[in-house]
Design a protein that fits this description.
Layout: E1 4-7, H1 13-22, E2 24-27, H2 34-41, E3 47-51, H3 58-62, E4 69-73, H4 82-88, E5 91-93, H5 100-116, H6 118-126, E6 145-149, H7 153-164, E7 168-172, E8 183-184, H8 188-194, E9 197-200, H9 214-220, E10 225-228, H10 237-245, E11 251-254, E12 273-275, H11 284-304
Parallel strand pairs: 1-2, 1-3, 3-4, 4-5, 6-7, 6-9, 7-8, 9-10, 10-11, 11-12
Helix pairs in contact: 1-11, 5-7, 8-9
The structure holds NADP nicotinamide-adenine-dinucleotide phosphate (NAP) and 2-keto-D-gluconic acid.
Length: 312
């Protein structure tokens, strides 16, 4: 008999197909019938398959008394109540390392775009402005200082790319990275004061909420650029919008937003902001590798009792 999985949120069609072949999968309704569905069927599911965007909260886990494993498409587990899962002995699989290259590549795309005005100059050409105007001079990237807020798996891939741009690398984590030769800064403010590009790639969740505060933005200053490929919650978004409007920082490249897909409308008119719809891991190659690990985490759990890559 196939193990019964509850799917919370949409997944890649190819992954849904593969899961349906190996498991008995049911999609959690996204409408008002959800409570009745869980009341009637909740006890049947031993696994949940979900994504970083949707996750699994304590209320969902409580409605699934037989739940043993969660497998999530993504590395961020801010939408999964891992403490609750741990207390219940529920395994939680995520997809680390599969997406390091693509997220790091996109962080650099944002750095180059916001500093050199790539998107802004593309708009300039398309609107016919080149015929009568000169595009303003931009900011050089090579040789500058990059401050990585969160020198983890992706942060280290960003640091490797920075070497190719002859950039000095500094970082802030709660603790220093063993063996790292990069300069450590004891707080986000000190890192922001030092660097030209502050790249945010820490874990999301309550512990990092508004870690990038108005004070950090002011420390970055009018020549500094902010890049966020982590979670919107890490930045005080109101303070960021104000800093961009008042040009108290030079610019921002943002892949993620606090209430995404809602983006503060004030940002739409600003040429010093590059706005992306959470696409950092969004390539065919990376999403396929992530999908394979979502599947493997489940297969591994049901055969050995352990997921291959755990969030806990
Ligand atoms: P990781 O290896 O766990 O790295 C996270 C880093 O954040 C670690 O260096 C950690 O160091 C630091 N950190 C955690 N809490 C902190 C705090 N309170 N203060 C300062 N530093 C803190 O994770 P990863 O695989 O690199 O992924 C990082 C994050 O990127 C994910 O959690 C996810 O939210 C985001 N992400 C976004 C996308 C996207 O599409 N935009 C794609 C993938 C991932 P310490 O533990 O020493 O503090
Ligand atoms: C995914 C992400 O787009 O891994 C993460 O944490 O943010 C992205 O890779 C997301 O998890 C898909 O929902």
């Amino acid at each position: 008999m196939k193990h019964r999985l509850l799917q919370n949120g949409p997944l890649l069609p190819a992954l849904e197909k593969r899961l349906a072949e190996a498991f008995d999968v049911q999609l959690l309704p996204a409408d008002a019938s959800v409570m009745e569905f869980l009341h009637t069927h909740g006890a049947a599911f031993t696994g949940v398959v979900t994504s970083g965007a949707v996750g699994a909260d304590a209320a969902l886990m409580n409605a699934l008394p037989s739940l043993k494993v969660i497998s999530s498409f993504g590395v961020g587990f801010d939408k999964i109540d891992v403490q609750h899962a741990k207390a219940r002995g529920i395994a939680a699989g995520i997809t680390p390392d599969m997406l390091n290259d693509c997220v790091a590549d996109l962080a650099f795309a944002l750095i180059l775009d916001v500093a050199r005005g790539v998107s802004a100059s593309d708009r300039f050409v398309r609107r016919g402005r080149w015929l009568t105007e000169r595009f303003p001079l931009a900011t050089k990237v090579s040789g500058k200082r990059i401050g990585i807020l969160g020198l983890g798996r992706i942060g280290q891939a960003i640091a490797r790319r920075a070497a190719g741009f002859d950039m000095a690398v500094g970082y802030h984590n709660r603790s220093t990275v063993a063996g790292s030769l990069f300069q450590y800064f004891a707080s986000p403010i000190l890192l922001a004061e030092w660097c030209d590009f502050l790249v945010v790639v820490v874990a999301g969740g309550p512990a990092t909420r508004h870690l990038v505060s108005r004070e950090v933005l002011d420390a970055l200053g009018p020549k500094g650029f902010l890049i966020n490929v982590a979670r919107g919650t890490v930045i005080d978004e109101e303070a960021l919008v104000q800093a961009l409007v008042e040009k108290r920082i030079a610019g921002a490249g943002l892949d993620v937003f606090d209430a995404e897909p809602q983006v503060p409308e004030q940002l739409f008119a600003l040429d010093n902001a590059v706005l992306l719809p959470h696409i950092a891991s969004g390539t065919h190659e990376t999403r396929q590798a992530m999908a394979e690990l979502v599947f493997d985490n489940l297969m591994s759990f049901y055969s050995s009792g352990e997921v291959r890559r755990s969030a806990i």
